[in-house]
């Protein structure tokens, strides 16, 4: 087994990179952040200095030309995910791309073709699912402790509506709450049920003040075996990110389903036959776990738990949700 750390290049100076991903990669066992690029070299250098990153570039092209890099992390605005992921793959790099991986399932399929052609891996950055508590939750569901699953509920909301210049509020750039945070409840339901939804119905607040993107959305996904996900997401509401799995004998309640930045935030509760217990989860950095998972796959020590094919499937659901919200119809997912 190789002990050489994989070298990461960060494409862009986004807040998620500076606040979460770079610190996570630096905490991981198998990786190091070796370079960062921005269209503004001064900004790239400032971030490089802050995080002790050896190299700063003033263009994304220079980053991809760096032959010492193994993995490129892409936190660019959503409409740039596809072109730069493809360019990175063609430059011989593996890629971790922020969610949503593209704007449509068809675009995600284009990435899958290039990934297959180049032999380079692509992972979508849903960091929450690398946290070990989700394996614990799935084991409890399988054990029968809460009975048969009848329904899943989840939400992810925050309020940033006053930041009118934010890229989240540019429709052509892939703005809107379904792309930004609704993708999490959608993704977690697919993960927990090991199934794909058959239809989507979504109602949304399409705000003229924010380029008509969905600032709030509430939806229903129909899964096999008469199970549904009800979810809401928003960028103009109080912060919350809970999850509840309802069974015939009890339920699993996760107060903070996707954000585990502080000790205790990963804990969840199991209620069965009227008695509730708290499951205390060891505090772990989900971003570091995500980086190490990708590194082991790149090294050939394991396979990706969530391949580009999973990202394509997730985008098919998002496509249906957006169509339903815009046309106010129930959409069957093919």
Order of helices and strands: EHEHEHEHEHEHEHEEEEEEEEHHE
* Radius of gyration of CA atoms, rounded to a whole number: 20 Å
Question: What's the CATH H-level homologous superfamily of the largest domain?
Answer: Dihydrodipicolinate Reductase, domain 2
Label the overall shape. Answer: globular
Main beta-sheet strand count, sense and barrel state? 10 strands, mixed
Judging by the overall fold, what is the CATH architecture of the largest domain?
Answer: 2-Layer Sandwich
Question: Which parts are unreliable, with pLDDT below 50 for 5 consecutive residues or more?
Answer: none
Protein name: Gfo/Idh/MocA family protein
InterPro entries: Gfo/Idh/MocA-like_OxRdtase_N (IPR000683), Gfo/Idh/MocA_domain (IPR050984), GFO_IDH_MocA-like_dom (IPR055170), NAD(P)-bd_dom_sf (IPR036291)
Pfam family, one: GFO_IDH_MocA
Domain GFO/IDH/MocA-like oxidoreductase: 134-253
């Amino acid at each position: 087994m190789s002990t050489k750390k994989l070298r990461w290049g960060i494409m862009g100076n986004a807040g998620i990179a500076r606040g979460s991903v770079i610190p996570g990669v630096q905490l991981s066992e198998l990786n190091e952040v070796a370079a960062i690029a921005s269209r503004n070299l001064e900004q790239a250098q400032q971030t490089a200095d802050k995080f002790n990153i050896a190299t700063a570039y003033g263009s994304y092209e220079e980053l991809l030309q760096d032959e010492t890099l193994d993995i490129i992390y892409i936190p660019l605005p959503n409409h740039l995910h596809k072109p730069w992921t493809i360019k990175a793959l063609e430059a011989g790099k593996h890629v971790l791309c922020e969610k949503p991986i593209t704007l449509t399932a068809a675009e995600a399929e284009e990435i899958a073709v290039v990934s297959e052609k180049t032999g380079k891996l692509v992972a979508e950055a849903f960091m929450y699912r690398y946290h070990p508590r989700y394996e614990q939750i799935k084991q409890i569901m399988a054990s029968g402790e809460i009975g048969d699953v009848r329904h899943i509920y989840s939400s992810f909301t925050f309020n940033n509506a006053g930041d009118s210049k934010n890229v989240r509020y540019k429709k052509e750039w892939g703005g809107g709450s379904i792309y930004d945070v609704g993708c999490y409840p959608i993704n977690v339901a697919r993960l927990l049920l090991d199934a794909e939804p058959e239809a989507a119905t979504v109602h949304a607040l399409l705000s003229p003040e924010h380029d008509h993107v969905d600032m709030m959305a509430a939806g229903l996904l129909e899964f096999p075996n008469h199970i549904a996900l009800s979810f809401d997401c928003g960028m103009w509401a109080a912060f919350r990110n809970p999850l509840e799995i309802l069974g015939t004998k009890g339920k699993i309640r996760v107060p903070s389903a996707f954000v585990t930045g502080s000790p205790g935030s990963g804990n969840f509760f199991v209620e069965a036959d009227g008695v509730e217990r708290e499951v205390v989860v060891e505090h772990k950095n989900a971003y570091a776990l995500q980086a190490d998972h990708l590194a082991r796959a790149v090294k050939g020590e394991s396979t990706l738990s969530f391949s580009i094919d999973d990202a394509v499937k997730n985008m098919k659901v998002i496509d249906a949700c957006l169509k339903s919200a815009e046309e106010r119809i129930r959409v069957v997912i093919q």
